[in-house]
Design goal:
Radius of gyration of chain B: 13 Å
Order of helices and strands of chain A: EEEEEEEEEE
Strand content of chain A: over 45%
Structural class of chain B: mainly beta
Structural class of chain A: mainly beta
Low-confidence stretches of chain A: none
Largest interface: A-B, 21 and 25 residues
Oligomer: heterodimer
Mean pLDDT of chain B: 92
Order of helices and strands of chain B: EEEEEEEEEEE
Number of strands of chain A: 10
Number of helices of chain B: 0
Strand order of the largest sheet of chain A: 1-3-8-7-6
Helix content of chain A: under 10%
Mean pLDDT of chain A: 92
Largest sheet of chain B: 7 strands, mixed
Helix content of chain B: under 10%
C-alpha cells in the first residue's frame, strides 16, 4: 500500500527565500507524480506533473525533481513571495492499473512580507 | 485543460439527511473521481465515477452511503446519505481529460459540508 510523507509539515519563511519541500513514497512503481497547491477553503491547482521517465520539470519559479528508485520527489520554490502561501501536496500514481493518486498530508507554507 | 464547477459550494445539514453534490465539466473527459478531505487531513479517493455503469468504490466507501451517478461525459453527482457529523468534510470532484497515463488531473473548487 502506497504511503506518502511530506516534510516539513509546516514552514514559515520571509519573502525572497529559496525553499525546498520534500515528498517521499513507499512504492517506487509509479506512472507519474503530481504536485498540487491548495489555498485555504479551495480546491487543488496542479503545479507540475513529472512522468516516471523524467528527472525534473520546471514552471517559472517552480522546479520539481523525481528520484523514483529512492521514492523521493522535491519541489523547489525560488524567490518565494507572499502569494506562494498555501498548502502543497504531492501525489504519486501507481502502475498497478489504477488511475488513483495517493496524496501526502501536505506542507503548509507561509511566506511573510 | 478542464474547468470544473461544483454545486453547492457549501452547505450546513442536519444529521440523518442527505445531500447531493453536482460536478459539471466544460468538456468531455475520460475519467471523473470523487475525493473527500476531512478537516486537517489530506485527500482520500471515494470512488471513480463510470459513465453508464456503477461507480468503482475504494476500500471503506460503499454505494449505500455515497451513491454516485455519471449520466454523460461532462457531469456527475455524489450523494452523501444519512449524514452524521463525521461526514463533515470538503468533497472534491476531479477529472482526467484524456489520457489517464499522461494527463494532469484537474480538481473542482470543492463543496464544504458541515453536518450538525
Amino acid at each position: 500500500k502506497q504511503e506518502v510523507t511530506q516534510i516539513p509539515a509546516a514552514l514559515s519563511v520571509p519573502e525572497g527565500e529559496n525553499l525546498v519541500l520534500n515528498c517521499s513514497f513507499t512504492d517506487s512503481a509509479i506512472y507519474n507524480l503530481q504536485w498540487f497547491r491548495q489555498d485555504p477553503g479551495k480546491g487543488l491547482t496542479s503545479l507540475l506533473l513529472i512522468q516516471s521517465s523524467q528527472r525534473e520539470q520546471t514552471s517559472g519559479r517552480l522546479n520539481a525533481s523525481l528520484d523514483k528508485s529512492s521514492g523521493r520527489s522535491t519541489l523547489y520554490i525560488a524567490a518565494s513571495q507572499p502569494g506562494d502561501s498555501a498548502t502543497y501536496l504531492c501525489a504519486p500514481r501507481a502502475t498497478s492499473g489504477t488511475y488513483k493518486y495517493i496524496f501526502g498530508t501536505g506542507t503548509r507554507l507561509k511566506v511573510l512580507a | 485543460s478542464a474547468v470544473i464547477s461544483q454545486k453547492p459550494s457549501r452547505d450546513i445539514c442536519q444529521r440523518g439527511t442527505s445531500l447531493t453534490i453536482q460536478c459539471q465539466v466544460d468538456s468531455q473527459v475520460t475519467m471523473m473521481f470523487w475525493y473527500r478531505q476531512q478537516p486537517g487531513q489530506s485527500l482520500t479517493l471515494i470512488a471513480t465515477a463510470n459513465q453508464g455503469s456503477e461507480a468503482t468504490y475504494e476500500s471503506g466507501f460503499v454505494i449505500d452511503k455515497f451513491p454516485i451517478s455519471r449520466p454523460n461525459l461532462t457531469f456527475s453527482t455524489l450523494t452523501v446519505s444519512n449524514m452524521s457529523p463525521e461526514d463533515s468534510s470538503i468533497y472534491l470532484c476531479s477529472v482526467l481529460p484524456r489520457d489517464p497515463f499522461t494527463d494532469t488531473q484537474y480538481f473542482g473548487p470543492g463543496t464544504r459540508l458541515t453536518v450538525l
